[in-house]
Amino acid sequence: MRVPLSWLREYVEVAADATPEDVLASFVSVGFEEEDIHRFEISGPVVVGQVLSLEPEPQKNGKTINWCQVDVGEANGGVRGIVCGAHNFVAGDKVVVTLPGAVLPGPFPIAARKTYGHVSDGMIASARELGLGDDHEGIIVLSTLGLDPEVGADAIALLHLDDIAVEVNVTPDRGYAFSLRGLAREYSHATGAVFRDPGSRPWGELQQPTEGFRIAVQDAAPIRGSVGASEFVTRVVRGVDPSRPTPPWMIARLVLAGMRSLGVLIDITNYVMLELGNPIHGYDLDKLQGGIVVRRAIEGERMTTLDGQERALHPEDLLITDDSGPIGLAGVMGGGTTEMSATTRNVLIEAATFDPVTIARSARRHKLPSEASKRFERGVDPLIPFVAARRVADLMVELTGGELTDEGGALFASVTQDAILLPAGFAQGVVGVDYTDDEVTGALEMIGAEVASTGSATQEGGGWSVTPPSWRPDLTDKWTLVEEVARIHGLDRIPSVLPTPPSGRGYTPLQQGRRRVADALAAAGFVETPSFAFTAEEQNDLHGSASGAHLPGIRLANPLDGQSAFLRRSLLPGLLQTAHRNIARGLVDLAIFETGLVFTPEEGVTYGTDFVPPLAQRPDDATLAQLNASIPPQPRHVGVVLTGNVAPRQPGRAAEPASLGDALHAVQVIGVAAGVDIDVSQTQRAALHPGRAGVLSVRGEEVGYVGELHPQVAADADLPGRAVVLELDLDRLLGLAGERVVAESLSTFPAATQDVSLVLDAAVPASEVRDALVAGAGDLLESATLVDDYRGDGVEAGRKSLSFALRFRAPDRTLTAAEATEAKLAGVAVAAERFGAAIRD
Predict the structure, then answer these.
(1) What's the pLDDT tens digit per position in 320-374?
(2) pLDDT tens digits for range 408-466
(3) What pLDDT score does 767 carry?
(4) Which of 473, 376, 347, 375 is nearest to 418 (CA)?
């Protein structure tokens, strides 16, 4: 919000020597963030001149210029010759002259220069050149602004171009500060200066309309239980003259506040909106058909707004209508059929309060943010519409020659504010500052709240009943009241104390497991590379299932990239894109990983909901369950991609390309960090090389896959050479791991080692053979490791020889060779029973 200082001074005392920086510092002290300082970038001699004569001179380029003799006053050099291309003035007119040495916005320095055969000793200025508007075709003729100053007078002061505005950032919960009224009050809080409320006018002084104008609010089924329009007042001013000029002081203030001057009628409504914070709309009364009805839109209804756009309306949109149909999108923008124009003679003024959520949704739905919607969606003071309507009417009478009539209409609503109980000592306990009771109550009374004692501070239940002012809908509980106490008395009083965390808290077991896995991969030399959760549908199908068949996916309603419009079912598409970008930049030896959510919607289930829980209240368990049911399962996965070499070429040593063994090593790293043993069995997947793919499982439950990327898939991903990948359902893996237990004590007795080679059918997975050995050998077997898989001479075709290194240990004694052999043979017996395995001779 921009605050012109001359305007601020009308409502609160600002020291004459206060700089814009001083004013900003005061706003910062009560919780506003400073943004900028705005001024008219004009300096040097800019004076009032009177045109003594002008001689039109046609030029070869078809343009006609005027060679003018302009009197700028004896103090400024008397009569000067000036070339001017405008034609909207005559001899005798008083104009704004920028003399050599002046600098206009741009910056555009003014100097005497030769042009069109003359030396132009200055320039006659237009509104655009002075930064007052967009009109560049005609110069400013001061008589059209109702001004008749002395020749040679300072035009900068005359047009209020010496005013300055400060800009502060207004947070969404403090809508009252989108007005001079609100910010002047805040400046008063900061400095202690006397505040004069422009919204405080006696009810009798407002002279409410006595002749009826039909107004109705038809909102039989209000959204979320809130009626679309709670108050609506109209006033009629007849006989206005829209050709009259907007006063220079009003133009300067509007421009500094960030708004354009659009004619005196519209300027007045904008001026009052900035002054009081209540958006105002003016209608050409003669274009209205019948009375006004405020209602929701009908399905299929359309209207054209003031920006010339035809808009399809939504049944939730709140409309202003007459007998012809929609004439305004309530609280957002008026309609083109009833707008005020140069032919307007009679004006209907509208001031209202609308449901903030309705206005916010309409503005976003139609992508139509406006100064009005910005205020309505944050909440407008419900006691101000009648004051605002009368203020607009008074200005139209004063500046356009209109006459305020008794015509109009009004819909009233009772305005009640619920009291909030503030216990004694609560503010001190929350903020950590030892405020006195007078400081607490004084701060709340300063912001406009009514404070009543509920008992002595030393008694149980003692404290205050606080009724917030009508313009502060953000004050809803005792915590927001405490925030006001802290803000008013200075945030610098709050001590800097680091909080002591309560004992017994920290990461959950699942969070700890995720961190262990990520840390273990990073320690093993892998680099974590997070990626976006968006991909193409065909990538979801390819990497999301073993067969590559089509899978259900979640399509984004408004994707950042039309080619990646789906939420991922796998981490690999993002990892492969990351690998491609790095390889394209010369980084070919990659070992990267990612842990992140994937989205796995179930077939036949519809996700998403139109249900929107009530705002400003904590959802209950049933509401949370309904919202959770509207989103698909989102397990967390871990994925790994390796390309290029895992060890570079060195003197006497060849480079070691990434292989399936390196991916299996990553699987082992993940398993150790998670606290589980991960088994690998051969499988087939559409995205992986045939014969070089494995399924990963824990105790018979599948948790992921590992393998070499199919050459065609690697080529489609622009990856040169071989790439190996793995992906695991990390949440399921950690769930199977269960609670981590304290490690058992290590045995002090030596281990007994034996090897065994078993011949069996080549189709039997080695992991299942190992499980058989473990099951048969019993508790004495400490580990069983596959060390060789032989197929060749001495082994029949279609069979293989698997060699395992077995290690046996007892916790209470040294094992004999016979005991170890007995345990080994027990394991071999189970393998023979299950798979027909025999010891290799």
Answers:
(1) 999 999 999 999 999 988 999 999 999 999 999 998 999 999 999 999 999 999 9
(2) 888 877 788 889 999 999 999 999 999 999 999 999 999 999 999 887 655 556 889 99
(3) 85
(4) 473
Report pTM.
0.66
Residues 763-779 have pLDDT tens digits of 898 888 999 999 999 99
Q: Which two tokens stand for residue 593?
A: 């990983």
How many C-beta neighbours within 10 Å does residue 415 have? 12
DSSP for 588-614?
A: --EEEEEEEE---PPTT--------PP
Name the pLDDT band for 605 (thresholds 50, 70, 90). confident
Helix (H, G, I), strand (E, B) or coil at 42: coil
Q: Residues 671, 677: contact at Cβ < 8 Å?
A: yes
Residue 293: its H or E element: strand 292-296
- E strands, 209-286, are 211-212, 215-218, 229-238, 280-284
> In the Cβ-directed half-sphere of 634, how many Cα atoms lie within 13 Å?
12
CA distance 326 to 304: 9
CB 763 within 8 A of CB 789: no
How many whole angstroms separate alpha carbon 114 and alpha carbon 128? 23
Name the residue type at position 507. Answer: Y
Smallest Cα–Cα separation from 327: which of 352, 299, 301, 361?
301
Measured from the Cβ of residue 57, the count of other Cβ atoms closer than 10 Å reads 14
**Token output for 109:** 């320095």
Domains, the chain, in order of start with CATH, read: 2-40+164-191 (3.30.56.10), 46-158 (2.40.50.140), 203-411 (3.50.40.10), 420-489 (3.30.56.10), 509-604+622-737 (3.30.930.10), 752-839 (3.30.70.380)
Q: Tell me, letter by letter, the H, E, C secondary structure of 125-188.
A: CECCCCCCCCCCCCECEHHHHCCCCCCCCEHHHHCCCCCEEEEEECCCCCHHHCCHHHHHHHHH
Tell the burial category of 56 from Cβ atoms under 10 Å away from its Cβ (0-12, 13-18, 19+): exposed
375 and 174 in contact (C-beta within 8 Å)? no
Interior angle at CA 153, CA 152 and CA 156, nearest 5: 125
Query: Token pair for residue 735?
Result: 């769930």
Neighbours of 624 (CB within 10 A): 12
Would you call 67 helix, strand, or coil by DSSP?
A: strand
For residue 407, is it left (φ>0), alpha (ψ between -120 and 50) or beta?
beta
Q: Is residue 412 helix, strand or coil?
A: coil
